[in-house]
């Protein structure tokens, strides 16, 4: 049997965008590392959504869930972080936590020496305190036993500077085989500012486009249907949008791609206004609902990507920087900056301009696909 490979930092808390990232990685590994068993290690500081994991296993290439990455969960950790912020010691405290966890994890991390390659899940997970400590410490601990560490396309933000020293970031990221693949030009520039070899790629979820195109549309009624795929919205904003659209006879459904984040606000709002609340188990189910809609409104990056698979007009809500960047890059003609601006007029304009919008988001998808990079190069295949 061929030596196994490992995927680390898989986020299995139930975010369908993260499951799509994992799906894309598994497809890539199956194609380029055929016959090598795949062991997945999930993020240790978040729980696993068992229902969505079970649904994912039915549609994704096979893998074994081998365990979690390392964390320093401590009953007083939140208090300590607050104190560090108060006294402006965030960088020093972060560095101390990373050193301590890496030291404690190094012995157990020897298990990673048996893998032909260790592949870091793509996405935007390095930023933050608990996530950053876990990931950088795990990276250091693994690097003590193997140099076969690679990464799928990632994003980082300037908030990294707030809790990490630049020398520390440069040293830690250098444990990953070069070049680092950035999902966006901002991340590429940040890596290069640290003196690291980096190249511009694209979100690996774009590699799932052909699978997405083959998904069949969900069933729907005959009335105009709007699908709202948003997060981090106040209940009053969602209720206002529902009232404005439903008063014109528009069928509207709220769909969450991360139930644990959105349920508490969106489920009661949907029930109060007679709207559907959908919490799909897979990213393919999300695409199916998008295909059954006349307009998709989203402020999620992977919402935009999945909408590009569905071939429907998308009306972006640009209150998140990653979505605004896509709107600008794709030159999408319509957008709203706040749910307060969602009304029947702009929905109908999106329907009327369907061909233009679908063409532009498809062109953006195709350009992104042309930028796709895998950490598994041909000479390593």
From TrEMBL:
It holds the Pfam family PS_pyruv_trans. One of its GO terms (molecular function) is transferase activity. Keywords: Transferase. Residues 15-318 form the Polysaccharide pyruvyl transferase domain. PANTHER family: COLANIC ACID BIOSYNTHESIS PROTEIN WCAK (PTHR36836). This is Polysaccharide pyruvyl transferase protein.
